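Aim 2 progress update. The chain analyzed this quarter is reproduced below.
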Amino acid sequence: MRRARSGSRAARRACAALLGIAAALLSAELVLRALPSESLGFVYARGVFTRPPEFTEDERRNALGFHAAELPPAEDRAPQVLLLGDSYVAALSVPLEETVGQRLERELDADGGRSLRVIAAGLPGWGQAEQLEALRALGPHTRSSLVLTLLLPFNDLRDNHPALEAQANAELEALARYRPGWLRLRREEAPLFFFESSLLNQWLSFHAARRRERTTREATAPLDYEVYVDPPSGAWIEAWERTERLLLETADTARQLGAAYAVALASTPHGVRGPEDGLAILRASYPALRERALDLTAPTRRLERFCREHGIPCLELEARFAAEQARRSDPLHWPRDGHWNVAGNAFAAQQLARFVREVLASASARAR
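Predicted structure tokens:
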């Protein structure tokens, strides 16, 4: 009889313990479901853990497929600036009205000079080859007084080299932390992930996967940061040669269309911290870079020298962004995505407006 009573008490205790564990797990699940994704530190969808989105992409496109205003009507006789670029010109992370192209047109209108229309042509992943094709397609149908390339030294060079671009695209799928602050982990990399619908199981598996990711990151770094190796070697020499050749072809095409040509060099979220602090950020994010001799100013200095040698006006934006960032608390780039946010697009447009007026004034003076 005593054994039966003892067994019954043990069963009740075990049952109570199981109910307590179940209640605790249920409570934890409910608490996590009440938290915003920013507090959780991740979102999970279609088998992949990522950081919560910083923005909602603006899906508006013009008739040409660009996140930009429509081409001016034929009766609008105002001279035009044709702005060529990649995702910085596309500016999908901000409303169409806040893109650098739209802001630039408003800045040019506000400065009291002659009215200028801005035609923006840029898509994510474009390099100078795609931009040259766009110029050849659009140029004969516009009244461009100026063709302006917004070049991002950080990744335009590898975009211009098929092998480097293929390697970078492969890394984008394979590396969990392709940029500082980014995170992309497949469910196969998350241990103890059994219940996809359970936010508690997602949370536990995500943090376990992050510990594994830190170990992997010790030995790897994305290809893109090799653009800061000075002097370049291997395929990067070819990338530089191809980029410079494409810029000269773009300049010649612009002049054949009767337009002036200029280049502006875009900024990066690490570069606006200054060469030393920016490099420290990269090395903290990728310990594998600590043994590399990198110079964040090397690509910009080479492009500025190239432009001087070929008589191409050039505006270096990163130093201006760094000075502006140092005096303000709010960022000019999205911290994780890396592109210009609304404030960054606005500041870039202010700088570009002065540059555009100077280039056009100089071109007009030479034509007299």
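The radius of gyration is 26 Å. The chain has two domains: 80-160+222-367, 177-217. These observations will guide the mutagenesis experiments scheduled for the next reporting period.
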